[in-house]
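Researcher: Structure for this, please.
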Amino acid sequence: MNLNQLLNKEEISLDDTTIIKLENFASLLHEWNQIHNLTGAKSVDAIYLNIIDSLYPLTFIQSPKSLLDVGTGAGFPGLVLAIAYPQTEVVLAEPLKKRVSFLKYASIDLELPNVKVEAKRVESVEHEAFELITSRAVTNTKLLLDLTVKVSDTYTEYLFYKGSRVFDEIEDVQHQLDYDIVQKNQRNYLYIKSK
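Model: Predicted structure, token format:
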């Protein structure tokens, strides 16, 4: 299946320009990955599945004005969301140099003026509170909330891409949170709403 068919199947509607940028991102990542080993997704098809995984929350979240992605890695979900949300200011926090190089190159190559790559750990990022903070497979929920305390406020929402452990993790913090867990395939999207 091509990317357009996959998007239609999940009822994710994007314009043609955005889809072309996502396809270009997949080609670019595939090319870099052969040399730099940035992601376990070794084929363009596997990268497409990661793109769909990153974009699925578009079906249940609002477009934020500002977004921080913690530990972006090869671009999931932060860079993919930046392509889908061209009006959103997106900051990608990623400490590993080869991944930073790729993210910087990709954001220039794909003409994403809304993206800023921060080559540092999230606790070193200085910025006013973000409207949405995302993260995929970085650390547990409580630690993510603790690490992002300086760049969040009561209006900040969180979207964490989780596996099955999310149910154990949420027990540590659930009394303070208004949240939904949206399940899709093997993914649990933990969506924590603002207070």
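Researcher: Any notable elements?
Model: Residues 16-36 form the longest helix (21 residues). Helices lie at 3-9, 16-36, 44-55, 78-84, 97-109, 141-147, 166-173.
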